Amino acid sequence: MADGDERVGAFWRELGLPGLIDVHTHFMPERVMAKVWAYFDAAGPLVGRAWPIAYRFEEDERLAVLRGFGVRAFTSMIYPHKPGMAQWLNGWAADFAARTPGCLRTATFFPEDGAARYVGAELAGGARVFKAHVQVGGYDPADARLEPVWGALAEAGVPVVIHCGSGPAPGKHTGPDPIARLLARHPRLRLIIAHMGMPEYADFLDLAQRYPGVHLDTTMAFTDFSERAAPFPRDERGRLKDLGERVLFGSDFPNIPYGYAHALEALTRLELGEEWLRGVCYGNAARLFGV
């Protein structure tokens, strides 16, 4: 177990919450997770520094740890890095959600022929959240093969957690500009900007102010680990509080280099108030996902 795990339950109980909702957790096929962990262990180019994984356990134990924290609902963030991978991941994630109480059925996509078809099938089958990883996938959100995908997601109102900020390392299509162009074409999209858009925090707060469907997840933001490399600007705390109903707690569990409690306590250090914390850690996601 990691440092501070015993403090997680006290955190949400003191806020008067029934538990936590974590919109950014990773459960994947075993061999895919092993490759992800190997990449982190090697401090690959998208990581760039030592990144010890705090919760490197078998799937059943990871689920037990998450439930022990009081997490009432969570995701299985999956993401392809090449064509032909997304549909297979979606099949695994659908089965995982069916056998895992509390898991919001998660799906993904890649710019490839057939993407609109299999995304449509996932929507019809009950997918409740999608994951898009512009950085790892290395694709332009404006790829023509994704236009019908974005249109279907906007029409359905199903949220998409999208890693599009340039942290921890910039990619060819990361940053706020591609997302601004996407939202100009599909303004009703419910995008959840992963990691608060780190390090382009202010730009993604701008987009959240402009588009009511844009949310932000707190994944790794505000922690000591991230503040050293990409500190959240203190003068943006006012906007962060004002947009509190569209900020959602995310952890990146199990792939975090610190204890789960630290991610929660980092939110407390912002000093934005208990009402803000209650919304971020439970209420906002409960409303968005109908939990």
UniProtKB/TrEMBL annotation:
Residues annotated as domain Amidohydrolase-related: 21-290
SUPFAM superfamilies to which the protein is assigned, alphabetical: Metallo-dependent hydrolases
GO CC aspect terms: cytoplasm
Keyword Hydrolase recorded: yes
Coiled coil: none
GO molecular function: carboxy-lyase activity; hydrolase activity
InterPro entries found in the cross-reference section: ACMSD, Amidohydro-rel, Metal_Hydrolase
Keyword terms of this UniProt record: Hydrolase, Lyase
Pfam families xrefs: Amidohydro_2
GO BP, one annotated term: secondary metabolic process
Signal peptide region: none
Protein name: Amidohydrolase
Organism of origin: Streptomyces sioyaensis
Lineage: Bacteria, Bacillati, Actinomycetota, Actinomycetes, Kitasatosporales
